[in-house]
Write a structure and sequence with these properties.
Number of strands of chain B: 9
Order of helices and strands of chain A: HEEEHEHEHEHHHEHHHH
Largest interface: A-B, 85 and 79 residues
Largest sheet of chain B: 7 strands, mixed
Number of strands of chain A: 7
Strand content of chain B: 15-25%
Structural class of chain A: alpha/beta
Distance between the termini of chain A: 36 Å
Chains: A alpha/beta, B alpha/beta, C alpha+beta
Oligomer: heterotrimer
Radius of gyration of chain B: 19 Å
Shape of chain A: globular
């Protein structure tokens, strides 16, 4: 069965990734009409737990998994729907991604792409969601060790928070847009637990420069920064596949060195702008306003080499 | 609830002949004798929150073990808070540090260093995922009390009265904090007996540990995750069927 | 949560051959609509699971209006509703019917 999302735009490549539904992202990202879904919505494998909380369910539990072609290459894909329960990991939501990663060992795709859009664990199914995240991380490393590039794409409304941030950190390569935010504790969680003086979640500029796509690209937490279009994510995903690092001791030793160096260099920084200044950015205050083109030009001028590892 | 076993008592039971395990800033590292070889130990004590420095330090110790080779098993002892919640930790990329620690443990296990988690106190959220849940086998001692989020916080987010949640928690294991519930989901595979020598129990668990991830099968068996195992298996089946159908000669 | 079920007879079948389609997302003020071509050509069933109880009459009117306009014969339509307004429901139903008519 095939599913075609509604689109009024003539080219799906020009659509906003941030605004698009998970299904529209998949349809636009993959070669036209090549997406095939596993455990599709007609099977109605919905959460057995949400009714206890008197909450509505979704036919796909907010996680769409399947296969398709990316510029002719066979790929496996998973996409979270950030508008349903904040894209959070519940039992079925998580199990679908676990299954997809296990399937990768058998069907040997050119890559496995995860389209993140999540606030983390679904609290109504917290234990199942947390355990699923652990299973996903283990399955990602098994797939990577078998030579399958696992690539994360982050640019959705819900960002990539909580356990989702840890899953993303397990991927071989990460692509992020301005709208993508990548973190463990979200601004509201930090403010609720530690007070507004620790993190004022209403200060949107602070949120973006602490957790947003440009900062993550600058410190090496993401490998590519892209425009908020489906076409830009597609091009970056294609470029990321051949660049995915192996999952071995050499990669993790490089990762260890990279993360230790970051602590040494920036451990005392108070704000992202301070870090950007130390990275050699002449006018850190101008970074949030840069276009992708301007930001790329800035990256090319920086004395830093590529960060890599992962 | 039984009392939490103190770390020094735990280590004494684990290594009756003595050990070289130390604790600094809530971070556990070192090793001790096990069987004819050594058992490497890392962990978190005193309900410390796991931040970027701690995760980086522990990951470094795990990679030291992998680099040295020899198949030394790694024990991860956990009595932690959640991840450290601060603007600075997030600014510097806490998600990368926590994921790196988990990846180091997963690499160690894949390269012949069996990993075993032992939860002897609290743990929650990102700290739990990065440590105990990244091991091949996770065991617990009575008195351990893991949680993803405490019920008052769940009440705030779900906008349900705390009393309602407490009542629901008695009949459903899927969202409520506590060791029994994490056993039900299959995340905690075994509960050890604190009155018997821990070294022998740990050695037995390592010897019996499954090579594949069996947590969803356990969750199904124990009823805490009724559907996860079936759903994952169905995705694998459908993926294989689709590919086979298109294979040349099919 | 409230479950609602409507059964309608139609004069004609909905054109097209597509077996199924889905549109919309379950979110506050939004809904998802799953359409499946699996009934006799003069029958349409609509099953609704809604987060907001007590609006059965409004749903009945919106569904009857959709059936009268589009003649969605042959379809089972299943809805997960997060509390959408009637105009949003009408829009999603129309989108769904259009998807089912696509080649």
């Amino acid at each position: 069965m095939d599913w075609k999302p509604v689109s009024l735009s003539s080219s799906p490549f020009d659509q906003s990734w941030y605004e698009a539904s998970a299904r529209a992202r998949l349809a636009g990202l993959l070669d036209t009409d090549t997406f095939q879904e596993f455990v599709g919505p007609e099977q109605r494998r919905m959460s057995p737990h949400l009714p206890l909380f008197d909450l509505p369910r979704a036919f796909d539990d907010g996680m769409i998994v399947g296969r398709g072609r990316l510029d002719g290459q066979d790929v496996l894909v998973a996409a979270q729907e950030g508008r349903f329960m904040g894209g959070a990991f519940g039992e079925i939501h998580g199990a679908k991604l676990v299954g997809l990663l296990r399937a990768a060992l058998a069907v040997k795709p050119a890559a496995l792409l995860i389209l993140f859009d999540t606030g983390g664990v679904r609290l109504q199914e917290a234990n199942a969601g947390e355990t699923a995240i652990a299973e996903i991380m283990r399955a990602i490393t098994v797939a990577r060790a078998a030579g399958i590039p696992v690539i994360g794409l982050i640019g959705g409304r819900a960002g990539c928070y909580g356990g989702g941030g840890l899953v993303a950190g397990t991927c071989a390569r990460l692509i992020i847009s301005e709208g993508g935010r990548l973190s463990v504790s979200g601004p509201e969680v930090i403010e609720t637990n530690k007070g507004a003086e620790e993190f004022d979640s209403r200060d949107r500029a602070l949120v973006w420069r602490t957790m947003g796509g440009k900062h993550r690209r600058l410190i090496g937490a993401a490998d590519a920064f892209v425009d908020d279009t489906i076409g830009a994510f597609r091009r970056a995903a294609l470029a990321a596949i051949p660049a995915a690092p192996a999952f071995d001791l050499a990669t993790l030793e490089a990762e260890q060195a990279r993360l230790e160096a970051r602590l040494d260099r920036f451990g005392d920084a108070r704000d992202a702008t301070e870090i950007w200044g130390r990275l050699g950015v002449n006018d850190p205050a101008a970074v949030p306003g840069l276009t992708t083109e301007g930001f790329d030009a800035l990256l090319a001028r920086l004395p830093e080499g590529p960060h890599h590892a992962r | 609830m039984p009392d939490k076993m103190p770390l020094d008592a735990l280590l004494a039971s684990l290594f009756p002949a003595g050990h070289a395990v130390t604790v600094a800033d809530g971070l556990i590292s070192g090793d001790g004798p096990l069987g004819g070889g050594r058992l490497a130990v890392i962990g978190i004590d005193g309900e410390a929150a796991l931040g970027i420095e701690g995760a980086c330090f522990l990951a470094g110790r795990v990679l030291d073990v992998v680099r040295a080779g020899g198949g030394t098993p790694i024990l991860v002892l956990i009595d932690s808070d959640s991840q450290r919640m601060s603007r600075r930790d997030e600014l510097l990329g806490l998600n990368e540090y926590l994921a790196h620690l988990a990846k180091a443990l997963l690499l160690a296990d894949a390269q012949g260093h069996p990993t075993l988690g032992l939860l002897y106190g609290h743990s929650a959220a990102g700290a739990f995922i990065a440590t105990a849940l990244a091991t091949r086998v996770l065991a617990a001692l009575p008195g351990a009390h893991p949680s993803v989020m405490d019920l008052p916080s769940v009440a705030r987010v779900t906008k349900l009265p705390l009393k309602t949640l407490q009542d629901m928690a008695r009949s459903t294991s899927v969202f409520a904090p506590g060791l029994d519930n994490m056993v039900q989901t299959g995340a905690v595979q075994a509960v050890l007996d604190p009155d018997k020598p821990l070294g022998l129990q740990v050695a037995a668990l390592i010897a019996d540990s499954p090579a594949a991830d069996t947590r969803d099968a356990l969750g199904h068996e124990r009823g805490g995750r009724p559907l996860a195992h079936d759903i994952a298996a169905q995705v694998v089946r459908e993926a294989q069927d689709r590919v086979l159908r298109e294979a040349p000669g099919a | 949560m409230e479950k609602l079920s409507f059964r309608h007879a139609t004069r004609t079948a909905l054109p097209g051959t597509r077996a199924s389609a889905i549109t919309g997302v379950v979110a506050s003020g939004n809904l998802e609509v799953l359409l499946e071509r699996n009934l006799a050509p003069d029958a349409c069933h609509v099953e609704i699971d809604t987060a907001i109880a007590g609006y059965g009459e409004v749903w009945a009117a919106v569904v009857a209006d959709f059936v009268a306009r589009r003649q969605p014969g042959g379809l089972t339509i299943t809805i997960n509703d997060g509390g959408a307004r009637p105009d949003t429901v009408s829009l999603r139903l129309a989108q769904g019917a259009r998807l089912m008519e696509m080649p």
